[in-house]
Specification:
The protein has 342 residues and is of the alpha/beta class. The chain folds into 3 domains: 5-99, 2-Layer Sandwich (Nucleotidyltransferase, domain 5); 113-207; 216-330, no CATH class. The protein has 13 helices and 7 strands. It has helices at 34-42, 57-66, 76-79, 89-99, 113-144, 154-166, 174-207, 209-214, 222-232, 241-247, 272-291, 298-306, 309-330; strands spanning 5-9, 14-20, 26-33, 48-52, 70-74, 252-254, 263-266. A hairpin with a 4-residue loop joins strand 1 (5-9) and strand 2 (14-20). Helix 6 (154-166) runs antiparallel to helix 7 (174-207), helix 7 crosses helix 9 (222-232) and helix 9 (222-232) packs antiparallel against helix 11. The longest helix is centred in the middle third of the chain and has 34 residues, at 174-207. The protein is globular, with a radius of gyration of 25 Å. The termini are far apart.
Length: 342
C-alpha cells in the first residue's frame, strides 16, 4: 500500500485514519485502537501525516516522526472548513488529510518533551494562582458579612487573618473562627505551592540561555521568558516578528470590505497565558515610566502621550513580541538603543 498523505483524527482509545495515494484517491479509511497505531505506521513507507493540534497531538507527532514520517499539526479552526458532510470521525480524518496538503495552510510547531514539561509547570502554577485568588476572595467576602473589611491585595489576607482570629472583641462565633482557620490554612498551602513552582521555573530559566536573553527585555521576567521559550521553540518557524505577534493575538482584528480597511481591537487569538504575561509586563514598564521625568525609551513616552495606558500596554507587548522573535531567530542579545542613530 503506497500512501502519500494521511490524516489522523485523534481520540483517547480509537483513532480514525484516512489516507490517499499519489493520485489523490482514497486508499485507506480505517479505525485503529491506541495500541495498534505505532505498529501500523512502523511498517508504512514514510509519508506526510496531518494531525489536529489537540490533546496528545504533540506526543503522537514525536512518536511518528521517530518512525521517519513527516508530521504537521494544524489548528482545529483551520481544518473545520474542509469537513464536507456531517461531523463524524471519518469525515474529520478526511478533512485533516485534505487540509494538510494545502500549500497555504498554517501549521503548529510540534513541541518536544522538555517544552511540554516546562509548560506543564506553568499551567500548574497558573491553576494554583487562580485557586489562591478565589480562596482569598471567599475569605474576604465571608468576613465582610460580619462587618470586617480586608483591603484589596493578596498580601493583606495572610497579614490580617491572624489578627482577626486572635481578636476576641469582634463577636465572631466559634464555628466561624474554626472555618476561618481552615480556610486560612488552605490559603497558605496554595501560596506555598505557587512559591515552590516559581522556584522550579527560576531554576529552569537559569539553565536556559535563550530564556536568560529574553529576560533582558524590559517587561519580561523569568516566568514570561521561560514560557515564551517553551511555547515558541524554534522562532524561525515564523517568517518575521509580526507573525509571532499575530500568533499571540496582539495585532488588530480586521473587518475590511470594498477596499475600505477597518481595524478593530486586538484579535486575542493564540495563547491567552502568554498574551496576559506580556501585557502585564508592559503595564509594569508603563507604571515605572510614568513616574520618571525622563526615560531612556522615548517611544513608549510618545505612545503614552497620545493613547491611554491600556492601548500603550498592548502596543508595548506587541513590540516586545517582535523583539523576542528578533532575539531568538537571529541569536542576539537585547540592546536598549539598537537601531537608534545618534
Amino acid at each position: 500500500m503506497k500512501l502519500t498523505t494521511i490524516g489522523i483524527d485523534l481520540a483517547k482509545t480509537v483513532m480514525q485514519v484516512h489516507g490517499i495515494n499519489e493520485r489523490g484517491k482514497t486508499a485507506l479509511k480505517k479505525q485503529f485502537r491506541r495500541d495498534q497505531m505505532l505498529p501500523f505506521f512502523a511498517n508504512l513507507t514514510p509519508c506526510l501525516i496531518g494531525i489536529e493540534a489537540c490533546g496528545s497531538a504533540h506526543y503522537w507527532a514525536r512518536k511518528l516522526e521517530a518512525l521517519g514520517h513527516t508530521v504537521k499539526l494544524m489548528a482545529p479552526q483551520f481544518v473545520k472548513p474542509y469537513v464536507k458532510t456531517n461531523k463524524n470521525d471519518a469525515a474529520d480524518a478526511e478533512a485533516i488529510c485534505e487540509a494538510v496538503s494545502r500549500p497555504n495552510m498554517r501549521f503548529v510547531p510540534a513541541k518536544n518533551g522538555e517544552q511540554q514539561a516546562v509548560l506543564s509547570v506553568h499551567r500548574a502554577r497558573q491553576g494554583f494562582v487562580k485557586a489562591r485568588t478565589a480562596q482569598a476572595n471567599q475569605i474576604r467576602g465571608l468576613l465582610a458579612e460580619y462587618g470586617i473589611v480586608i483591603p484589596q491585595g493578596i498580601g493583606y489576607i495572610a497579614k490580617r487573618l491572624p489578627e482577626i482570629l486572635e481578636d476576641g472583641e469582634n463577636d465572631l462565633p466559634g464555628v466561624f473562627r474554626q472555618l476561618l482557620q481552615r480556610l486560612g490554612d488552605h490559603f497558605k498551602e496554595l501560596d506555598r505551592q505557587v512559591s515552590e513552582l516559581e522556584v522550579q521555573i527560576q531554576l529552569w530559566h537559569r539553565d536556559c540561555a535563550a530564556s536568560r536573553v529574553l529576560a533582558e527585555i524590559p517587561g519580561i521576567g523569568p516566568i514570561t521568558a521561560s514560557a515564551l521559550v517553551a511555547t515558541i521553540g524554534n522562532a524561525r518557524n515564523f517568517e518575521n516578528g509580526r507573525q509571532l505577534a499575530a500568533w499571540l493575538g496582539l495585532v488588530p482584528r480586521q473587518h475590511s470590505s470594498g477596499g475600505k480597511p477597518t481595524l478593530l481591537g486586538i484579535s486575542k487569538r493564540g495563547d491567552t497565558y502568554l498574551r496576559t504575561l506580556l501585557i502585564h509586563g508592559a503595564r509594569a514598564v508603563i507604571r515605572i515610566a510614568a513616574r520618571k521625568v525622563t526615560t531612556g525609551d522615548s517611544w513608549i513616552k510618545r505612545v503614552m502621550g497620545r493613547r491611554n495606558k491600556n492601548i500603550a500596554a498592548v502596543a508595548l507587548a506587541n513590540k516586545n513580541a517582535r523583539t523576542v522573535w528578533a532575539l531568538l531567530a537571529h541569536d542576539r542579545h537585547y540592546e536598549t538603543n539598537y537601531g537608534v542613530t545618534q
